[in-house]
Amino acid sequence: MEEKKICKYCKTEIPKGAKICPNCRKKQKGPLGIIIAVVIVLIIIGGVAGGGSDSKTDTDTSTNTASVETEKTESKETAVEETIEYTACTKQELSDALKANAMKAADTYKGQYLEISGYLDVIDSNGKYISINAGEDDWSFVNVQCYIKNDDQKAIIMDLNKGDSIVIKGKCTDVGEVLGYSIDIDEVVVE
After folding, report:
1. Torsion angle of alpha carbons 111, 173, 179, 97, nearest 10°?
2. Theoretical Cys-Cys bridge with 174: which of 3, 18, 182, 186, CB 3.0 to 4.6 Å?
3. Which of 166, 164, 162, 132 is closest to 147 using CA atoms?
4. How far is CA 116 from CA 65, 95, 107, 121, 132, in A?
């Protein structure tokens, strides 16, 4: 004889392994379903109850960590500014390197601090950048675009004219065979 159990909804006798009552068609929840429901409820309660204090601790810790990291970064920036060594080069040398092998030029100059000698060429009307060339005979399509970072640099450039001899000290942020060189200006020196 087959073992029977009672439907939790209509209270009729049904086969023990039945997942749906043949009489009322309601799904029979087994002990596994109840156990899973209890575990989920406990996880939610634990997350809500315990999460508050842990979140605050995590926030405080991350805030303290951020403050320490900011202080470390500021002190590193100060140290870096004091120890920057610029590699001297001319606009012509940069052009020649890019024409000969763009990949090698990028590997050599990208990320480096350069002291570039040349002549003022383009002065952006919005005061965002300037470019330099190698002189009147420079018919190169290689551009050395130098980005102005502050008002002091703008003031120096404001008093210059196209063709003036200058030296740009800055970091080379990008090198490309089409766009040439991108330099973030640290200092403008008028020769």
Report:
1. -20
2. 182
3. 132
4. 39, 12, 17, 13, 9
Rg for the chain, CA atoms, rounded:
36
**What is the tens place of the pLDDT at every residue in 103-120?**
999 999 999 999 999 999
Q: How many whole angstroms from its chain centre is CA 38? A: 43
Nearest by Cα to 40 from 28, 51, 48: 48
Pairing status of strand 180-190 against strand 144-147: parallel
Task: Please tell me which residue, 169 or 53, carries the higher pLDDT value.
Answer: 169
**Pair 16, 2: CB distance under 8 Å:** yes
Q: What percent of the chain has pLDDT over 90?
A: 46
- 179: tokens are 């766009």
